[in-house]
Amino acid sequence: MARIVLVIICLMAASVFAAGCWDRIELEQRGFVIGVAIDEVENKSFSEQQVSDDQSNRKDSMQKFKVTFQVVVPAALKMAEPKGGVSSSKAYFNVHVEGRTMQDVLAKLSSQLSRQPFLEHLKLIIVSEKVAATKYGFANVLDYFLRNNDARRNVSVMIAKGEASRALDIMPKSERTPVLFINNISRNGKELMRIHMDTRIGDVHEYLLKHESFTLQKLTVKNGDASLIGASVMDSKTNSLIGFLNESETQGLNYITGNNSRGLIEVEVEDNLVVFEVERSKKEIKVNASDPKHLNFHVVITMEGSISEAFEREDYLSDTTLDNLEKKVEAAVVKLAEETISKTRDEYKKDVLGFAAYLRESKPSIWQEVEENWDNGINYFSKSDITTSVTVKIRRIGSVNQTETR
Predict the structure, then answer these.
(1) What pTM was estimated for this model as a whole?
(2) In CA terms, which of 32, 104, 273, 363 is 20 to 30 Å from 17?
(3) SS3 at position 46
């Protein structure tokens, strides 16, 4: 009897473990999606006369999207690249699908692929500026990727200037797929201050939940080439795109937020250029809160680095020369920071500089007073005073003092 009971228990245990694989899909049957580009399809069934102001949210929710999926071909991806630098077989293909929701789009994608779409290797989501500028449209298109476990929370998110699908049609020479090429460029923000730091979908989710304005990488495609110079500014109230920062404004943003500790700064010395390479950088925020409705912020930026290139033949072993050069770099950084402050505080009136996070963490009592109207409504952020001071220290002048004497 005991043996029969033991056999039954073993069979029941085996059935439990076997049931865990009932929905397993073999790798050969998966369609690996590595990139998604989301554009808007013009909906001609709506007109401005048909939709009143108080129904504008409904109009936004009835958007129709054209979604481009980049699906990788594993066999071609593993093939050795020929000596000429261009592979004869593409390691990917793009599929275009239209629908009103991401769930609808993915269902239609399944009908166009011989393999089941698999999003766990998704690396990049690109949203067009038109979709992102629509009220709540940006949050709507990300809802599926946040709500489901199909995609991981480290997927990069960026805004495309113009149509997003064009980015997936570029022909990179150094990578096998456009997505891998763009994804690798996005990480260069750690070395180039003109590029915004890579933003993951998990970070975006936190901004949306905290109702914070934020910035994302800006993707521009021109003449078949992709560029990530600049940044996109997102509104905390509508979760929509309100504009872009240019190259110098993005550089100033990186200095103020401290998100980037490396980069290059060019300054003029006697009508010639000298390049200062930032090797370490940090920032500190100070605030005078005597009047919570009119805060005074002071951003202290400190930098260390070296002279990486010099067209002006000065004696860089001289303390006087170095002091003069340090002052010029400090002035250049202050100018860039002021340009960014002017654009974000005075024009956009949105705090993407990190002051809201600073007040929430360091001055919670003050934050409670201004939170509801920080960069909306009364907009205390636009009424605040923001100043910067910069201290630069040149640690090295390079391997030589001068290339030549003049």
Answers:
(1) 0.85
(2) 32
(3) coil
pLDDT attached to residue 56: 43
Residue 11 CA neighbour count, 13 Å, CB half: 6
Distance CA 250, CA 236 (A): 19
Contact 322, 316 (CB under 8 A): yes
Q: Are residues 91 and 208 in the same domain?
A: yes
**CA–CA separation, 68 vs 165, rounded Å?**
6
Same domain? For 109 and 222 the reply is: yes
Q: Please work out, in degrees rounded to the nearest 5, the angle formed at the alpha carbon of residue 281 by the alpha carbons of 357 and 394.
A: 155
Question: What CA–CA distance (Å, rounded) separates 57 from 139?
Answer: 13
Domain termination site, one of 188, 211, 245:
245
- Tens of pLDDT, residue by residue over 180-200, are 999 998 887 656 788 898 999
Structure tokens at 387: 């100043």
Residue 181: give the domain boundaries.
27-43+57-245
**Residue 350 domain-assigned?**
yes
DSSP 220: E
How far is 221 from 39, CA to CA, in rounded Å?
15
Domains: count for the chain: 2
User: Which pLDDT band holds residue 149 (cuts at 50, 70, 90)?
Assistant: confident
Tell me the C-alpha to C-alpha distance, in Å, between residue 159 and each of 30, 178, 228, 238, 381: 28, 16, 10, 16, 25
Alpha carbons 275 and 140: distance in angstroms, whole number? 44
Distance of CA 334 to the CA centre of its chain: 24
178 and 65 share one domain: yes
Confirm whether 2 is domain-assigned: no
Out of 219, 245, 271, a domain closes at 245
Question: Cα–Cα distance between 23 and 29 in angstroms, integer?
Answer: 12
Q: Is 322 helix (H, G, I), strand (E, B) or coil?
A: helix
Rounded to an integer, what distance in angstroms lies between the CA atom of residue 12 and that of residue 6?
10
Question: Does residue 189 sit within a domain?
Answer: yes
> Quick check: is 321 in a domain?
yes
Short-list 204, 210, 64, 50, CA closest to 130: 64
What mean pLDDT value characterizes the chain?
A: 85
Interval 329-355 mean pLDDT: 96
Q: Is 167 exposed, middle or buried (0-12, 13-18, 19+ CB in 10 A)?
A: buried
